[in-house]
Amino acid sequence: MGALPVGAADVAPTCVRCRTELAPALLSCPACHTLVHADTLKELAATAQRLTLDGKLEEARSTWYRTLELLPTSSKQAVTIRSRVDDLTRRINGDSPAAASPTEPTSWWKQGAVAAVAVLLFSLGKLKFLLLGLTKLKTFVSMFAFFGFYWSQFGWPLAAGLVVSLYIHEMGHVHMLRRLGIDAGAPLFIPGVGAFVMLKQHVTDALTDAKIGLAGPVWGLGAGIAAYGVFRITGAPIWAAIAQLTGFLNLFNLIPIWQLDGSRGFHALTTVQRWAAVAAIAVTFLITGQKLLVIVGAVAAFRAFQRNEGESHPRVLAAFVGLTLTHALLSAIPMIP
């Protein structure tokens, strides 16, 4: 057996999940089957995918080989990666049409188009409404500019996933506003910042404000789950990255500060309910390890100390806690199926 990659020698003496003692040569926990080198495997998988997208096929194959050295040979992950190595080998040797550069963009376009449609179909009953939002010129033009900005930074697949995810999130707000009979503009995208919906009238009722604010993360969750479903079907790490990014962005919006969605939800909670939310955020952090929850929890605790509490709305509390947990889990999903 060859030398292990850098970091492979730093084997934890106990399993990070169940604390079972591990022999130095083990690659997975014999009790709970947790992979010993899970963090290193995530980094290698992300690197291999990026190299593949950049056309550096031999480097990508070499990186996938390194992951195999850190996986039990009979594991499902090892089988999946060996398949990817075989596919890269065929492309490198010119045995697959995908290896020819003229057809590479077409292949990616087809895959991206299918995945984008799958994300949009996360709610068949709302598809017509989602498409209706694209008929607004300001929305379409600002979305295109937003897409172009992030395409130049991260490539078109991740940029497209980010745009679709944010669009669905904002249309969640629009849908709720229409249900409540409140006039508002179409979603607008600002490159480097995000997207927003401008209300044309002031909302004074705390419960109404909470419904508007939390509708975005609810619809965003649907988009994230759809992207994760595409990842589970195709095994393409780019869709895991889109699902993670969707979860992270929606979790960021749940910070109860300023005009963010979480702040609108907190308006409707009593002091006791706010502290209950803080406790739930702490438990979620212990479960997921998502560091953004430290900020969410700290701001929530600060809000709990304030005296401008709302009336008791248990459903708003349940929605806030549920969205925090699910988006934290989504943002922490592994890159290897």
Short précis:
The chain is built from 13 helices and 2 strands; from the N terminus they run H-H-H-H-H-H-H-E-E-H-H-H-H-H-H.
* N-C termini distance: 25 Å
Structural class: mainly alpha
Q: What strand line-up does the widest sheet have? A: 1-2
Low-confidence segments: 1-12, 96-111
Q: Count every helix, treating DSSP H or I runs of 4 or more residues as helices.
A: 13
Can you describe what's shown?
With 337 residues, this protein is mainly α. It has two domains: 1-99, no CATH class; 101-331, no CATH class. It is 64% helix and 2% strand. The chain is built from 13 helices and two strands. It has a two-stranded antiparallel ribbon. Strand 1 and strand 2 (194-196) form a beta hairpin. It starts with 37 loop residues before the first helix and ends in a 6-residue tail after the last helix.
Key attributes of the depicted protein:
2 domains; 2% strand; two-stranded antiparallel ribbon; 337 residues; flat
Set out the fold topology.
Elements: H1 38-53, H2 57-68, H3 76-93, H4 104-120, H5 127-133, H6 137-154, H7 156-179, E1 188-190, E2 194-196, H8 206-234, H9 237-253, H10 261-266, H11 271-288, H12 292-305, H13 314-331
